[in-house]
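ARCHIVE CARD
CATEGORY: sequence design from structure
SOURCE FIELD: tokenized fold
FIELD CONTENT:
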């Protein structure tokens, strides 16, 4: 039989090591999650939902994206995307051709994309949120 007095400290150290690794890994995973509307200074507060968006998408998540696109890009540049403020997008919740053009322009000029797809996925959400959080225009 094994001496339990020797295995107990080893077991505790092993459990502590596993918990430590999980804690570090968990923190890393959390940083990959996009910031949500409540985290971006109260500027665009349509929704916290940030699903993948593309032409044909509708609803509050599209309004959120349109608002962030206006803040991050349109306010700092002369655009011709619609009749919204600063000639930016109208925050109407309809992901149409103007919104797609704005997304592609944002992906090129603010994210360095060489082949923009006009789809708002996790990377584009993160870039938009970052622009709004920092209060800077690209």
């Amino acid at each position: 039989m094994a001496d339990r007095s020797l295995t107990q400290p080893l077991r505790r150290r092993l459990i502590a090591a596993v918990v430590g690794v999980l804690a570090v890994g968990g923190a890393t995973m959390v940083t990959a999650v996009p910031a949500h509307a409540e985290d971006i200074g109260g500027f665009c507060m349509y929704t916290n939902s940030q699903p993948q968006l593309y032409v044909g998408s509708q609803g509050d998540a599209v309004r959120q994206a349109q608002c962030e696109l206006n803040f991050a890009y349109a306010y700092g540049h002369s655009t011709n995307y619609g009749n919204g403020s600063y000639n930016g997008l109208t925050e109407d919740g309809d992901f149409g051709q103007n919104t797609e053009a704005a997304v592609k322009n944002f992906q090129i000029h603010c994210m360095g994309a060489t082949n923009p797809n006009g789809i708002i996925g996790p990377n584009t959400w993160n870039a938009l949120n970052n622009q709004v959080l920092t209060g800077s225009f690209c």
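CARD ANNOTATION: The mean pLDDT is 74. The CA atoms of residues 55 and 95 lie 5 Å apart.
SHELF: design records, drawer C
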